[in-house]
């Protein structure tokens, strides 16, 4: 699942190429992928894009006069690529934008479930679409993060992934950030001490920056994640095997020594069923 570092790396790579030529033809799009019908995709034909932007995990492609914005959310399995003129592309992408001169921006999605989305929005509709998002996760200082977390008492891992509180973090970077901050994924947001919030704010910035730097260099998941998806492998700090627990539809990875004082976290859904 692409999160803030991955989507930002994509944004940086696409920013110049999408501006180079006007759009020749927008679409077609898979019926499940295109989330809006008015204005129609054909409204982009002949327009020049102003570059690539990002809000949380969404990519934004405003047209030059800013009166229309193309929004792309990759969800878990979407992939967006810029193809040079003549490059071989997928036969039936979920969405295609063809530029004058022959280059293409193509969105594909692995698997049969179509979750990735494309929206074409006017500025007021864009503002409404993005209104629920919290501040960008890589731009928060400890004071602001503390206010946000203490506004509600939640398990920390779930709170970090809640886009209404903070925009940009999903389960992989929540695992990386909580390990770097030496905090339990099950810690309650309302009970964090000031020094813990400060550690979390610092870890959030450092980990998201580390991720962006690696992704810009083309690093894959095994080169990027040190905790996520590493069950049983030694923690890079203390060599304790990384543990895993299922929680709210998500799998959490953590180090029992660095993060939970040696305690092994229990699957709360299971304990609830057994009670
Ligand atoms: Zn450790």
Cα-based radius of gyration, to the nearest Å: 20 Å
Largest sheet: 4 strands, antiparallel
Q: What hetero molecules are bound to the protein chains?
A: zinc ion
User: How far do the termini sit from each other?
Assistant: 34 Å
Order of helices and strands: HEEEEEEEEHHHHHHEEHH
Report helical residue fraction.
25-40%
Question: What is this structure, in a nutshell?
Answer:
The protein is elongated and about 60 Å long.
Question: Explain this structure to me?
Answer:
The chain is an alpha+beta fold and 275 residues long. Helix content is 30%, strand content 19%. It is built from 9 helices and 10 strands. The protein has helices spanning 4-15, 123-130, 142-150, 156-161, 171-180, 194-216, 221-224, 256-259, 268-274, and strands at residues 23-29, 53-55, 58-62, 69-73, 78-83, 95-99, 104-109, 117-121, 243-247, 250-254. The radius of gyration is 20 Å and the shape is elongated. 37% of the residues are buried. The chain binds zinc ion. Zinc ion binds at residues 235, 237-238, 240, 255, 257-258.
